[in-house]
Amino acid sequence: MNGPALYERPSASAASWRIALPHSAAAVPVARALVRTALAELAHGADCDTAELLTAELVANAVEHTAVGDCPIELVVQLLPGGCQVEVHDPDPAPPFDLTWPGTQAPDPWQEHGRGLLLIRALSSSCGHRPTTSGKAVWFRLPVVPQQRRSA
After folding, report:
1. Residues near 67 by Cβ (< 8 Å), separated by ≥ 6?
2. pLDDT digits (tens, 9 = 90+) for 3-50
3. Using CA atoms, how far apart are residues 138 and 132, in angstroms rounded to an integer?
4. Which helix (H) or strand (E) holds 85?
5. 3 state DSSP class of 127
6. What is the CA radius of gyration of the chain?
7. Phi, psi dihedral angles at 106 (to 5 degrees)
8. What pTM was computed for the model?
9. DSSP class per residue in 3-71
């Protein structure tokens, strides 16, 4: 890891974690573990499996599509009363291709790449990107899953 995880609890109804990740494939399991820990620690009602999957996609995209440099990739997990929001910050200011506008062409089923943003659009309640002072943040939100639909 590039830095320590910071845990912030701004109020009784929200909590957030922020961690700098290495600019390598090793960032993906670290990010998944942080999301799993954050959701489990507070017995949060968002779907942990979906949160882990979508986080892995965002982090893998940041590692693959940004140049290695001085700016680390950063993961921010926010637990909110109505769900969770996960952001991945990277140093590239260019918006992610086809995140908020579906492509005109379906991904090739025989290719290894090309489905990550499709998964994020399909499985999150909302997603997007925004510029930051050092690049951009790409994010998704997941709602709280009703108690009767959660696995035991």
Report:
1. 91, 92
2. 444 444 444 457 899 999 999 889 999 999 999 998 886 666 789 999
3. 10
4. strand 83-90
5. strand
6. 15
7. -70, 150
8. 0.80
9. S--EEEEEETTEEEEEEEE-SSTTHHHHHHHHHHHHHHHTT--B-HHHHHHHHHHHHHHHHHHS--SSS
